[in-house]
């Protein structure tokens, strides 16, 4: 009888799909009130396993390459299992370049991981396709600020939990800058940053650490000025460019932004063929060893930097500031976001999955995360033992100059992909800013024309 019920549930689920019911989609008005047969079946099975004490294994797929974060996930899964002996969490790493596509493929094959490290901003299409489980607001304790929670929403509903207050900016080596005659305060404007790079280069040192064999590291160079600069002043920029209501030429500062980004990359980071093949881990090590004076990277890199510094016996002092794109300091902000977890709508154990998510929002879990990663927990009031010397400086930036760009509507799908791809290819091909901007416009027009 149990097998018959399961078969009936599966058949009903397929009938609902063919009838046009996009269960779990953010755009479906019935999604939150009427569960699908497959969801009901999963929840029933989950309740059975919880009640019986049957061992359950949850899978967590992530793209965090930093060793501190990998170690943190293992420590968190072990601590959670110690508190919930019948629930284990297996952690799997996958490169970001393949991440979203692999998740979609697994979901289509009914083999999706229970958890994925994504944000609504990065992958709204997965939510719209019904691949992500909607979460209850009671998962978020009062200790998590609204500025961190807001980017966890899509269409006014909750789909992710935050792990940390994260973001990316400019690391700098105080000793190397001093040798080049540069005061760190000069990095507060784009002209000051470019001038600092030239002075470091003239002093016979490498200005910027390179990790651009991985596309995401280079993407940040252009995304920072757009996401935390232009889009702060025009939150609808992405929507308007994708819809055709605005053109790239409506943002005249883009040409200067692209020129400056290419100058940073071509003249001050990619200084020889060897560094052109650097991965992100090589970039962290290059800076940590003292082989480059600055590095544009995220706060998540801090533990890997310290590991490389210690291994090299480097005693230099480091600092951190925002990545300036304008000569008006009041327009420059720390591009803030955060690592977050989404729960797959295809999870076979939704109750156990929610239990893990609730655990991840505790101060205890926040402390484990922060101590291993060196980052600031999304849960306020978390105190860590022996914080990194850069942490007070980072905390001050988050308090005074952070802009959580993921609260805005994002470039999506092929639009987002082409924005980054054309920028990188333009750098490789030696193109000008005008050529790149023209290609962006042509690509967006073409995507819109075919209904992308």
TrEMBL record:
Keywords: Signal, Transport
GO BP of this protein: transmembrane transport
Family annotation (Pfam families): SBP_bac_1
Region (Disordered): 26-54
Keyword Transport: yes
Transport among keywords: yes
Region forming the signal peptide: 1-26
Gene3D superfamilies: Periplasmic binding protein-like II
Family named by the database record: Belongs to the bacterial solute-binding protein 1 family.
Annotated protein name in UniProt: Extracellular solute-binding protein
């Amino acid at each position: 009888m149990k097998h018959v019920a399961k078969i009936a549930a599966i058949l009903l689920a397929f009938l609902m799909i063919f009838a046009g019911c996009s269960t779990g989609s953010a755009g479906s008005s019935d999604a939150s009130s009427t569960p699908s047969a497959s969801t009901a079946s999963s929840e029933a099975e989950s309740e059975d396993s919880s009640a019986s004490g049957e061992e359950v294994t949850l899978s967590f797929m992530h793209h965090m390459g930093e060793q501190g974060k990998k170690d943190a996930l293992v420590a968190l899964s072990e601590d959670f299992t110690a508190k919930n002996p019948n629930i284990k969490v297996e952690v799997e790493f996958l490169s970001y370049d393949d991440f979203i596509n692999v998740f979609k493929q697994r979901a289509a094959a009914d083999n999706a991981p229970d958890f994925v490290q994504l944000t609504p901003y990065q992958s709204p299409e997965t939510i719209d396709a019904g691949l992500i489980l909607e979460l209850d607001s009671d998962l978020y304790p009062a200790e998590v600020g609204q500025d961190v929670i807001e980017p966890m929403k899509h269409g006014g509903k909750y789909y992710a939990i935050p792990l940390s207050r994260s973001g990316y900016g400019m690391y700098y080596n105080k000793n190397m800058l001093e040798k080049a005659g540069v005061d760190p305060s000069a990095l507060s404007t784009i002209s000051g940053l470019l001038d600092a790079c030239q002075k470091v280069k003239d002093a016979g040192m490498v200005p910027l650490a390179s990790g651009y064999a991985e596309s995401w590291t280079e993407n940040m160079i252009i995304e920072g000025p757009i996401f935390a600069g232009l889009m702060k002043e025009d939150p609808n920029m992405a929507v308007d460019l994708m819809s055709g209501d605005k053109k790239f030429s409506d943002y005249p500062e883009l040409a200067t932004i692209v020129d400056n980004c290419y100058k940073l990359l071509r003249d001050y980071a990619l200084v020889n063929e060897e560094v052109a093949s650097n991965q992100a881990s090589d970039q962290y090590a290059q800076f940590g060893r003292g082989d480059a004076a600055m590095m544009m990277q995220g706060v998540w890199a801090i533990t890997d930097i310290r590991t490389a510094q210690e291994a090299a016996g480097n005693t230099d002092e480091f600092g951190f500031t925002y990545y300036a794109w304008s000569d008006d300091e009041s327009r420059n902000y720390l591009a803030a976001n955060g690592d977050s977890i989404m729960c797959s709508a295809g999870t076979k154990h939704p109750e156990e999955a929610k239990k893990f998510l609730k655990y991840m929002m505790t101060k205890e879990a926040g402390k484990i995360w922060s101590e291993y990663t060196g980052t600031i927990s999304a849960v306020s009031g978390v105190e860590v033992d022996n914080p990194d010397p850069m942490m007070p400086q980072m905390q001050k930036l988050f308090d005074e100059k952070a802009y959580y760009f993921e609260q805005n509507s994002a470039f999506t799908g092929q639009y987002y992909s082409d924005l980054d791809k054309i920028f990188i290819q333009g750098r490789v091909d030696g193109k000008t800013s005008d050529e790149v901007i023209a290609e962006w416009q042509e690509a967006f027009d073409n995507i819109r024309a075919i209904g992308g």
